[in-house]
Amino acid sequence: MITLKNIEKVYRTSSIETLALTNINLSIQAREFLSIMGPSGCGKSTLMNLMGLLDLPSQGNVEIGGQVVTQYGDKELAQLRNQKIGFIFQSFHLINDLSVLDNVEIPLLYRKGDPTGKSRRDLAKEALERVGLSNRMKHFPNQLSGGQKQRVAIARAIVGRPEIILADEPTGNLDSAMGNEIMAILQQLNAEGSTIVMVTHDESMAKKTHRLVRLFDGSMVGDSTLQTV
């Protein structure tokens, strides 16, 4: 599903060069739930951005669903992101001036139409029902708790039925009880067929996934199977 081959990522300015990732070789199979851990600044977010096609490597190849995307243009990358990848962010990235329902509908604005013939609004409602927020559709983000905001973010990520979900610290801003609830939703989505990659600082959350990859100073220093897919 996701393959990274000989990945190196270098950030350059006029006066400094920073090696963010080096010699990354990683293959994630369909329906796998993989967690990524490591200290701050080790390259976790950079790796997530490469998987999500938000950035391209300085060297090496990224494959998504068997497609080598390294030479794709911006338009092709945007289309592939919209069709195959859902993003969940630690800070939610909701638009405060839009209702919960409108926030969830946003990814569908860039699609021509749903194969089932359902409207964007119906699909957004279904996504919110899946995360238990059907009674909050008309609310605005500033009227929600942190856990509810994260549920909205998950609904927005899954509304287009992506094959891949990338979650960057999805429980990082939540208390343990709410974090466990969010993790349960992710586990259910994975059980239903989604491939999930999650960045986390929480060892207890990582242990609930299939596989744990550890990074340090831009390199992979561990790759452990925790559960079979």
From TrEMBL:
Cited Pfam families: ABC_tran (PF00005)
CDD domains linked to this entry: ABC_MJ0796_LolCDE_FtsE
PROSITE patterns named in the record: ABC_TRANSPORTER_1, ABC_TRANSPORTER_2
Residue stretches making up the ABC transporter domain: 2-229
Source organism superkingdom: Bacteria
A GO cellular-component term linked to this record: membrane protein complex
Keywords assigned: ATP-binding, Nucleotide-binding, Translocase, Transport
GO MF: ATP binding; ATP hydrolysis activity; transmembrane transporter activity
Family as reported in the entry's similarity comment: Belongs to the ABC transporter superfamily. Macrolide exporter (TC 3.A.1.122) family.
Protein name per its UniProtKB record: ABC transporter ATP-binding protein
Organism from which the protein derives: Spirosoma terrae
